[in-house]
Amino acid sequence: MSDGFSLTQMGRLVEVFNTANRLSGASAPVGEDYAIHPVSSGGGAVRSSSGVPIWTRAVEDHHFIRVHALFVIAGAALGHDEHLLSWLSDVYPRTETVQGLGGGARLIVLAGLTQKATATDGPLEVQPSAFDSTADGDGSTALVNALNIVKHDHGGEIASAVAQALSPMASQKIARPPLHEDEDGAQASESIRAAAHQMRVGSEARVSISAAARAAAMSERNFLRRFKKELGVTPSEFVLRIRLEKACYMLVETDLPTDKIARRTGLGSGDRLAKLFRQHLAMSPTGYRASERQRLAASGSLKSHEIAAHEAGHE
What we know:
single chain; 315 residues; mainly alpha; Arc Repressor Mutant, subunit A; three-stranded mixed beta sheet; two-stranded parallel sheet; AraC family transcriptional regulator
């Protein structure tokens, strides 16, 4: 992972493998569950396109004998990281599937490598679009590869069940979020990018569309039209997605109750937070907290001392 990665794309992949672990259950050999290891060049916090940090381990902290799949997820603004490129070249021969998402595809090319997919007999019965209508481009290819891995390991029935298990999320997902200005947003005008950045950093407070339009030197009507055209979502959808991503982060990284998280992220009350999670993530906030902590602990990416204690006295 590298700064500017798409949290949405990462979340889709994680859900595929977590769901496969749950559905394969007793039929999977002992020790054959999928383990997900978020790694980066130097380790520590890597920030998503919306500014939400994900904790990673340094690539050299893992000595992989064999890598089932390597998904290289990065933003478009990439520096030349020889350390990371060297690691990619080293681990590549021991990796069955290699897929780049966003700037990750360019990282693979810079390392002098090519992407490779898991081969299966016959097409998937359920395509990724059946449970994620927002998947396109390399995001869609990554989902195909993830499901093909599951099909290769557990058969077509489990792979189809994974897609079907995630399908309730599809019709309720909000539109694909606008990306960081260094990703797809780089094609947007400077005024729209600046307005998006201002809305992102101030998402916890009440966001004024009229103020954002004035800052962009546009009429409110023209601002709304340009924002949707250049970033693919409305300003309201943009702010909601940022708030939800920040809430996801706080649920995992702190012990704050849901009502405080709702207030601190601009989502109002715990009841509204719960309603939004059911609509967009098909689970409750407490369910998300428990499942994500369990997943991160299982992969070695989260230890109990890394979860912050209650933050008293701050509303």
